[in-house]
């Protein structure tokens, strides 16, 4: 199963921050990172990100990527706000689906909403419909989750908390796993105590060749990074504590035509 996680907005999106300065993207990306980590515990699951830490990815680019990769589910993660910039009273969690209420997306939204309310204890603002771009322009089941109000003095304390961010991610992942009958890895490898398993896709003397590979990998939905070592420009993607997760990425990349190997760093 292919799942796209969308940490809404970006570090520098205008206005997307709490009255005391927390950027919404800080919360959104943390939850997305935790969710990806949890999803790696399930069989045959591939996780993509619609967002980037380098720039605020336009909405059309996010949905085009999801459609091009033909993902099965799209989950947009947000923190809510109310008013014109100061502290306000609205609090709680709400989950959105498109106005046509697609059946599977609606069921997923209901599961996510139930889990989040049960795990966080915040007010239940319900499952709602909206004509949001990421719900309208995606060709797969899509939901958007508002995980608390940045403009509420109590909610913002939670939104800043790593414990709360992890709880939100786990509640979302448990709902996804239940909705799509995902199976836990039956024989998970123990975490590596020596470093992280990284997948290398190429090593070049000419940086131009490395840059071209990075761009191609991005177009295919991967998240590569480039660094220089031993006189070579190396392109890697993924960093895993468990080797079987790196093995799964190698298998997928090889099926896409890439020559890869696993590097323990």
TrEMBL record:
Annotated Gene3D superfamilies: Sporulation related repeat, Zn-dependent exopeptidases
Domain SPOR: 191-265
Keywords of this entry: Hydrolase
Region (Disordered): 1-20
Molecular-function GO terms, alphabetical: N-acetylmuramoyl-L-alanine amidase activity; peptidoglycan binding
GO BP: peptidoglycan catabolic process
GO CC annotation, single: outer membrane-bounded periplasmic space
SMART domains linked: Ami_3 (SM00646)
UniProt key word Hydrolase: yes
One Pfam family named in its UniProt record: SPOR
UniProt xrefs under PANTHER family: N-ACETYLMURAMOYL-L-ALANINE AMIDASE (PTHR30404), N-ACETYLMURAMOYL-L-ALANINE AMIDASE AMIC (PTHR30404:SF0)
Protein name in the entry: N-acetylmuramoyl-L-alanine amidase
Naturally occurring in which organism (per UniProt): Mesobacillus persicus
């Amino acid at each position: 199963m292919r799942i796209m996680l969308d940490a809404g907005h970006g570090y520098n999106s205008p206005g997307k921050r709490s009255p005391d300065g927390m950027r919404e993207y800080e919360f959104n990306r943390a939850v997305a990172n935790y969710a990806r980590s949890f999803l790696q515990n399930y069989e045959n699951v591939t996780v993509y990100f619609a967002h980037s830490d380098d720039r605020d990815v336009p909405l059309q680019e996010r949905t085009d990527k999801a459609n091009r990769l033909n993902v099965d589910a799209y989950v947009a993660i947000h923190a809510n706000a109310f008013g014109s910039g100061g502290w306000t009273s609205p609090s709680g969690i709400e989950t959105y689906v498109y106005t046509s209420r697609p059946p599977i997306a609606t069921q997923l939204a209901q599961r996510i909403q139930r889990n989040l309310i049960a795990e966080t204890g915040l007010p239940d603002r319900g499952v709602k419909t909206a004509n949001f771009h990421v719900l309208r322009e995606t060709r797969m089941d899509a939901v958007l989750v508002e995980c608390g109000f940045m403009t509420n003095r109590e909610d913002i304390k939670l939104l800043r908390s790593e414990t709360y961010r992890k709880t939100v991610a786990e509640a979302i992942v448990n709902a996804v796993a239940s909705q799509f009958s995902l199976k836990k890895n039956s024989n998970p490898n123990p975490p590596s105590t020596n470093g992280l398993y990284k997948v290398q896709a190429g090593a070049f003397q000419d940086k131009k060749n490395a840059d071209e590979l990075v761009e191609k990998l991005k177009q295919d939905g991967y998240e590569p990074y480039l660094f220089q070592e031993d006189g070579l420009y190396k392109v890697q993607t993924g960093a895993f504590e468990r080797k079987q997760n790196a093995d799964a990425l190698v298998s997928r990349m090889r099926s896409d035509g890439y020559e890869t190997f696993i590097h323990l760093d």
